[in-house]
Amino acid sequence: MIRVLATGPLTTTQDLGRWGWGHLGVPRSGPADAPSHHLANRLVGNAVDAATMEVLRGGLTVEFLEPALFAIAGAPVGVRLDGVPVAFGASVWAQAGAVLSLAVPRFGLWSYFAVRGGLDVEPQLGSRSVDTLSGIGPPPLAPGRVVPIGGLVAGPPGAADALIGLCDRRDIELRVSPGPRHEWFTRQAQELLVTTAWTLSTDTNRIAARLTGPELALVEPRQLPTEGLQIGSVQVPASGQPIVHLANHPPTGGYPVIAVVDESDLPMLAQSLPGTVVRFARRAPGRA
Question: Are residues 99 and 16 in the same domain?
Answer without folding.
Answer: yes
